[in-house]
Specification:
The chain has 217 residues and is α/β, with parallel strands linked by helices. It has ten helices and five strands, in the order αβαβαβααβαβαααα. Helix content is 44%, strand content 12%. Strands 2-3-4-1-5 form a five-stranded parallel beta sheet, sandwiched between helices. Strand 2, helix 3 and strand 3 form a beta-alpha-beta unit.
Amino acid sequence: MKFLERIAQGEPVPNLVALVGEETYFRQKALNAVIESVFRDVPESDREIHRFNQDTDFGSVEQAVNSYPFFCGKSLVIIADEKLFEQKANAKDDGLAKRLEPLLAIVTNMPDYCTLVINVPKFNKSLKLFKTIRDKGVVVESEPVKPNALAPWLKECAASLGGRFDYTGISRIMEYLAPVEKVPLALLEKEIGKLRLYKGTEKPWTAEDVETVFSDL
């Protein structure tokens, strides 16, 4: 994900971020990276993070955004309330844009010290709110990885742990996952971590190694 690469290279995170898509794994990775970038070198006890996961009140969001963080001079507001962005099926206009107008007003006047992140699976791209965040900040889309397109991700995940698969190892994992529609990336990452502990990183990981270790998968 290019967004993660830019953060890893030290590029600052804009103070408006939308993490959108059905793949929770990638959205969580991106959110973790944003948190660490915003609060770089700040102890967790001093990090001012406000989370809105359900029954979001825009008055509370506005207060969180505009309250100056005295401990470290930075604050983070995370809106992960999926119902807030739900739109009725087959409805051209169900009043969603109207309901989100208070949030649009908030993101239009963001203070420099606050970063606001919207983290949801679906976000209507035709909304002025979406376009405003895209223009003023960044939108990161997170789509599921299909089993037949998994090889590059497997190589990248192994490399991040200092290891590597040979052809047979990758083939065996893809055989395991061929029947599924959505790859369980978080579980797969956990199994690859176990494989590193079992086999080490000096030799490539084979189909036999995968068969031995990947019990949960």
